[in-house]
Automatic annotation (TrEMBL), chains A, B:
Domain of life: Bacteria
Protein source organism: Billgrantia pellis
Protein name: SDR family oxidoreductase
InterPro entries xref list: NAD(P)-bd_dom, NAD(P)-bd_dom_sf
CDD domains xref list: SDR_a5
Location of the NAD(P)-binding domain: 7-186
Amino acid sequence: MTTLVIGANGQIGRQFCELAETAALPIRAMIRDAGQRAWFDERGIDTVVADLEGELRHAFDGCDQVIFTAGSGPHTGPDKTLMIDLFGAIRAIDLACERGLSRFLMVSAMRAEDPLEAPEKLRPYMAAKYAADAHLRASAVPHVILKPGRLIDQPASQRVATSLTETGGENSVSRANVAYALRHLVQSRDLIGREYVLLDGERPIAEALC
Amino acid sequence: MTTLVIGANGQIGRQFCELAETAALPIRAMIRDAGQRAWFDERGIDTVVADLEGELRHAFDGCDQVIFTAGSGPHTGPDKTLMIDLFGAIRAIDLACERGLSRFLMVSAMRAEDPLEAPEKLRPYMAAKYAADAHLRASAVPHVILKPGRLIDQPASQRVATSLTETGGENSVSRANVAYALRHLVQSRDLIGREYVLLDGERPIAEALC
């Protein structure tokens, strides 16, 4: 019952991997090159070197679910948004289908369902997330889509909300809380076909994501 | 039985519109702003002002099929590839489904089915086309996907091929031949669920695309 973590070396990915390791959840951290391995080795986390723009198939061997939390990030251009956030996600979804995986946990973004409503600078990114989410919904793989708000660096409160109404319009969520939410989702194997907005809030994660 | 032409003001779009007008095929040319209207007015071609990144819905009124030949083109960046080639296509496909249109004719690109095999510079574009095509295939709207090779400016030979084997590896096709191919597809309403590579070649269009 190993979970492949795509985007393991990212900010959310690393925090999730540490939580999973501590909870003894079987995971495999997918990293792009062996130079990223030391951090994971030190923590006893299994890794596989694979590339969303290259050799990918072998990373899925022996895994039965996937977390996709890869993102090209703010330091690359929209060409990488197309190759990673969009096409990397599509490749991972198609492989998950082909292998008959039990679940695909997608880290998307709040308001990805309406890219034209986003601030102009964010629209191309939201368009990529929209298309990746749509591809997942149309696929045969059981899935959960998590839609965090604006990501911030704060310690985990482990208290969340799932709508702007609930937060009175506050739209941020700590990456640490996203990592805890992912740990909860990985453990809650009966959750399928769900989509959750995720914000910092007042409710325990297990109560909010059910 | 009006065909909405999305991307009408593009190089293929204009040539197709002229052919359709000459053949008395009912079309509506979708243009982004009224300043593009004169060229169409001079030729007696009906237009509608609509925007793939804005108000779009009204353009579909009274139409029963769609040609999507819009492209952000080589003079804009991959942010526009995301907004036009990917998300604009997705919006048009979703509207075509919602309206129950009889067909969606997509102008894609040869090898869009394998973006990682394209030269590196073209990969983000091919990823967008891959995702748009996949969205169309997964949709409920009957469709045809046309995949031209490398586009060149030559007069229409009206002779085409549908594989590199057939051309001995020659990978180009004139925009004029693509326009003629679209005219043929618009008239051939029984063609559904087909995908064709399109190259300059030796066969009459009606024989190659059947």
